[in-house]
Design a protein that fits this description.
- The chain has 396 residues and is α/β, with parallel strands linked by helices.
- It has helices at 19-25, 42-62, 75-89, 105-115, 134-140, 163-172, 247-285, 312-318, 329-333, 339-344, 348-352, 365-384, 387-395; strands spanning 7-8, 69-72, 96-100, 120-124, 145-149, 176-180, 199-203, 214-218, 289-291, 302-307, 322-323, 354-358.
- Strand 3 (96-100), helix 4 and strand 4 (120-124) form a beta-alpha-beta unit.
- The structure holds 4'-deoxy-4'-aminopyridoxal-5'-phosphate.
- Residues 74-76, 104, 106, 151, 155, 180, 182-183, 203, 214, 329-330 line the site of 4'-deoxy-4'-aminopyridoxal-5'-phosphate (PMP).
Length: 396
């Protein structure tokens, strides 16, 4: 079969809605369109039942109770609610928050905002593998530390944080642990009990569900996590997140979680084998290519690499039939160089040469072989006309 282009290799940015998810959602746009808060008639009851079923599906993927799931518009909102809502509700007790330089802007920005409200915030560094140092973490804890916010998996280099260790440290010091699990969900096993997670953010469109829907897990006991709302109104979602529920979106998110739970193990094996094959082929065919970070302890679908003297923006122009990215999609919107790659210790030039490829449910071997060939052609073309590359080669 001829290969269909453009080829999508940007699953960290977003994923297509799984046809099974779409199928589950469709009735809730027209036939079953009720408002889940309408308590007085069958349309409302039907919508409410669907929402509660989805709540259970989401909770089940996290090892949580259904009452601990609050629907939001996505992970940006969940992160804002977790950080602002927890800090503001507990400001009388403690006023210090701890996070890491490699977090997503949807965590960094609300944290920075809190400094204007009198909170103090510290950021841990990462090493060349994208790892935090637990000793540095311990040293940065203060008696007044209220919350640590650390992601499950990084959206640029796919590196994983040691969630169980973090949960233990948080417990020992009586502070809350928020985890932005947007990229980790459906790819690594998450268990909020085993991992001691108190607040967890997730998003539908990263797990083959629809865009504009997400959830926040909030621990209800051992200990109960107190929160203040960020959005006020009709008192939906126990008063924590007002606004008419997005019933089709919620149904889709629930279905996406159920599929992820069922298929995670087999899909991880398939993706890892494709990703490793991709990396091998790139190294076999192209000179002077380097991996950013390390293969161990990394999402199975992530490959972040740099081709010496090949500005990624130029590469993207050369190979328009491949869809990949220069860094995080959100940072590329703001056209800023990746803060994560800089934190890894890469030079400004190395950051500019870096490309993020992320594979997913529709990726296959043929696409990987085609992508490698096209990248090789693009890299060769750019290097042929690069005086810097020629000079660097002559120096060797
Ligand atoms: N956190 C991480 C780690 C992400 O990758 C993203 C999406 N780029 C977000 C948060 C924001 O998610 P959403 O698009 O659902 O707002």
């Amino acid at each position: 079969m001829p290969i269909q282009t453009p080829i999508y290799l940007d699953y960290h940015a977003t994923t297509p809605v799984d046809s099974r998810v779409l199928e589950a959602m469709l009735p809730y746009f027209f036939k079953k369109f009720g408002n889940a808060s309408s308590k007085t008639h069958a349309f409302g009851w039907e919508a409410e039942a669907a929402v509660e079923n989805a709540r259970l599906q989401v909770a089940s993927l996290l090892g949580a109770q259904k009452e601990e799931i609050y629907f939001t518009s996505g992970a940006t909102e969940s992160n804002n609610l977790a950080i602002l809502g927890y800090a503001r509700a507990n400001r009388e007790r403690r006023n210090h928050l701890l996070s890491c330089v490699s977090e997503h802007s949807a965590v960094l920005d609300p944290l920075r905002h809190l400094t204007e409200e009198g909170f103090e915030v510290s950021f841990l560094s990462i090493d060349s593998q994208g790892k935090i140092n637990l000793e540095e973490l311990q040293k940065n804890l203060r008696p007044e530390t209220l919350l640590i916010s650390l992601m499950g998996a990084n959206n640029e280099i796919g590196s994983l944080h040691p969630l169980e260790d973090l949960g233990k440290i948080a417990r020992q010091h009586g502070l809350a642990f928020h985890c932005d699990a947007t990229q980790a969900l459906g790819k690594i096993k998450i268990d909020v009990e085993k991992m001691g997670i108190d607040l967890l953010s997730l998003s539908g469109h990263k797990i083959y569900g629809p865009k504009g829907i997400g959830a926040l897990y909030v621990r209800s006991k051992n200990p109960k996590i107190n929160m203040s709302p960020v959005i006020f109104g009709g008192g939906h979602e126990g008063g924590l997140r007002s606004g008419t529920l997005n019933v089709p979106g919620i149904v889709g998110l629930g279905e996406a979680c159920e599929i992820a739970q069922r298929e995670m193990d087999s899909e991880n094996i398939r993706l890892k084998s494709l990703r490793d094959m991709f990396w091998q082929q790139l190294q076999d065919k192209i000179e002077d290519v380097h991996l950013n970070g390390v293969l161990e302890n990394r999402l199975t679908n992530n490959l972040n690499v740099r081709f010496d003297y090949v500005p990624v923006q130029q590469l993207m122009m050369e190979v328009r039939d491949l869809a990949f990215s220069a860094g995080a999609t959100c940072t590329s919107v703001k056209a800023k160089p990746s803060h994560v790659l800089q934190a890894l210790g890469l030079s400004k030039a190395e950051v500019e040469w870096s490309a993020r490829f992320s594979l997913g449910r529709l990726t296959n071997e043929e696409e990987i072989a085609y992508a490698t060939q096209r990248i090789k052609e693009g890299v060769d073309k750019i290097r042929t006309s690069s005086i810097e590359y020629e000079m660097a080669k002559e120096e060797l």
